[in-house]
Each structure stands twice: as C-alpha cells, then as structure tokens.
Amino acid sequence: MTKITMYTKDVCPFCDRAKALLKAKGAQFNEINISTDEDVRAEMIERSGRKSVPQIFIDDHHVGGFDDMAALEAAGELDPLLGRYGHETFKETHHKLVVIGSGPAGYSAAIYGARAGLEPALISGLEVGGQLTTTTDVENWPGGADGLQGSDLVTQMREHAQRTGTVLLNDVIVSADLSQRPFKLVGNTGTYLADSVIIATGASAKFLGLPSETAFKGRGVSACATCDGFFFKDRNVVVVGGGNSALEEALYLSNIVSHVTIVHRRDHFTAEQVLQDRVQALVDKGNVDVIWDHEVSEVMGDAGEVSQLRLRGTQSGDEQIIATDAMFVAIGHDPNTRLFKDDLKTESGYLVTEGGKSGQATQTSVPGVFAAGDVADPVYRQAVTSAASGAMAALDAERFLTWEAQAIAA
Ligand SMILES: Cc1cc2nc3c(=O)[nH]c(=O)nc-3n(C[C@H](O)[C@H](O)[C@H](O)COP(=O)(O)OP(=O)(O)OC[C@H]3O[C@@H](n4cnc5c(N)ncnc54)[C@H](O)[C@@H]3O)c2cc1C
To answer: Which of 98, 135, 139, 184 to mutate to test the pocket of ligand 1 (most atoms within 8 A of CB)?
Structure first.
C-alpha cells in the first residue's frame, strides 16, 4: 500500500489544500505537524531540502509542496503515483447548471442556483475555497464586524451551498467544449454535460517569472506568508509588491521576523488606505522599510538558500544587491481563463461579460455560459463583489433556461 507522509504546520492554507486534495482521492496520509517540534522541523528540512510547508512524500518519492502535487494532478500523474489506475469512478453526468470554482463567486452562484431549482453541481478545483483561504483576517465582509478568518468564511459558504442541495464535486476541469449544447466539461474524474455553466474560476497568484525565483521556491521564495513566515523567525525578509496582498503579507510577517523590506516597482502603493496607514506606522517604528521604484531581477543564494536579491531601478535602471533570508512574492493574480480562451471572448486575460442594466449582465460571448467573480473582473476583485456577481450569474442562468424552455414549448 502507498505510504504518504505530509509535513504540515498550524495555520497553513496550502497544507489544507493538499489535505483536501488527498482526502478527495480517498488517500490515507500520515500528517507530521512541525509547528512546535524542532526535531521534526529539522527532519523535514533535511529530507526535502526546503523551508516551506507542506512537504509531501509518496513512498520515498519527494513530491514537494501543494503546487507540485497540484501540477501532477493537472497532468493526470498523481493517481498513478497514489496507486489509483483507470479512474474507476470516471463517469459522465448531465446537469442543468454546472458551477466551476469554489470561491465566493462559485458558492454564491450555487446557493442562488439551488434555490432557483437548477440543482447545481459545483466543481471545486484544486484550490478548495479559493483565494480567501490564503488570508487570515477578512475585515470588510458585511456582517463580520467582529472579524472573520478567510478560511472560516469560505467553509461557511461551502456548508451553506451544501445545505441548499448543491452537489459538491472534488474535481478539476481540464478541458471544456463550449461550442455546442450541452456544454461539455471534462475533469480528472468525470465528464460533465451542462445546459448552462457558470465560470467562477477566479485567479491564481502570480510569480515574477525569473528562473532564479523558480530555483529557490521553497528555499526562501514563497507566495504564502502564513505558511512559510515562521521558518524566518527573527530573520530579515523581503516582500515584493504594493497592493493589498503585499501589505497584508508585510504586516503579518512583521509580527514574526526581525525586519521586513517591501520592494515595489512604483513610487506609491495601490493597497487600501487602511493597510497603507498600518504599514506606515511600522515604517515609523523601524520594523519595515520600503524600496520604491525597484524590481527584483535575480534571486541569489548560498547552499541552496536565499541570501541576496539583485534589484533594478524601474526608473533609473540602476542595480543594487540587498541581503535577505527570504522573498515573499505578492504581485497580484492572473485570471484562470486558459481553458476557455478558444470558446469565449477575453480581454487582457479576463472573460468578457455583457454588463449593462437590462439583465444577462454576467453572460459571456456564448449564450448559456456565465462568468462571475475575479475571472471576469479586472477592477474590484473582492470577496463581496465576487459573491454578488455569483448571485447575478445564477439568476441569469435561471432566466436563460426558462426563456429557452418557453421558446421550445411555443
Ligand atoms: C491574500 C489575499 C487576501 C485577500 N483579502 C481579502 C479581503 O480581506 N476582503 C475581500 O473582500 N477580498 C479579499 N481578497 C480577494 C478575494 O479573495 C477574491 O476577490 C475572491 O476570493 C475572488 O473570488 P472568486 O470566487 O472569484 O475566485 P477565487 O477565490 O479565486 O476561487 C476560484 C476557484 O476556482 C477554482 N478553479 C480554478 N480553476 C479551476 C478548474 N480548472 N476546475 C475547477 N475549479 C477551478 C479554484 O479551485 C477556486 O476554488 C484577498 C485575496 C488574497 C489573495
């Protein structure tokens, strides 16, 4: 029998994602929590060569972190590693409404769709719960005056969707044919035929795209402060970016590490004012400093760990090298539209929707296919706006199917 070992820590969104993926496959794993035990922490670093959680081993094969396991899953290579062959469970099912994505947009669409009698099936994808699972405090969700944790909020949404009768499916869509009805969505464990589709695939974190960044991933380069910040307790770290995510990461890390340097390619932040004020207070205290108008051009290291970054002036073109123990990248997200590019109209990577005030605002360029949340929103990109557009998409789908049924009957 396959032996799976996963090193995790308390409060680790990517550990939660890895556990959810393995559980969805019915795989048993031995979890080793490194939060408080120095010896197992040293064992994990020794075995994996990485300072990042989770670290997953299948038998003696080092898979890596969640992203590495997700890449195997997307390529259809995880099942054979787990000893699962032939997709015994693979089947084709037909639904009135399929919602793709389990973030606020997807769950909201499912809740409204179920209440409209569309018996939705929701396909969770690899990032169960979506982006909110990677953050701690959500302070702007209406009704959450006492503060909410991102993962608690999406867990409540998931439970709510389930209670309305939504069929929740742990699968990832790998190809889509939206050129004819019923629409056809192929996942790793099933094929879904759909009379209507709501695409709520959100966005995924961007990296800088430097070869040296890839080489040091898990060895000081991270996109998750809550997962990996504690490996750099009392050390110096850099956060790259200037939006909400970057300042949130900097604020979180400032409680753990000795000093945070924010490297930003512009001369001002684009984050909300409240976050800028909090960061400024730490700059005044000396815990945080900011290097403006610079971008990282190379990650450098000693003995497989990050030790320096080469920076290039975005205005001046000058070069400088700064010492650091880690680089946390928080430069925004790319919309997950790759699967739909052949069938649907996109603009700057985002799905194009009808908009306007005469209904069907969430319809894409194909009637019957709707889009909600960050995947179609280059501007607002908030949990509450995503949830709102998910509701709109479900109402649009319901109207579309009703009109269609009436037209056929007439
Ligand atoms: C660090 C951080 C902090 C944030 N803090 C806040 C905050 O405090 N307040 C706030 O309002 N917003 C916040 N946001 C923004 C907010 O999280 C997003 O706007 C919101 O999650 C977008 O929701 P969504 O449903 O459109 O997509 P996402 O949350 O991105 O979810 C996308 C879903 O699609 C699924 N998916 C993708 N591809 C596939 C596929 N091929 N097959 C099946 N499923 C797929 C994924 O698994 C995922 O479940 C934060 C974002 C980040 C990164």
So the answer is: 135
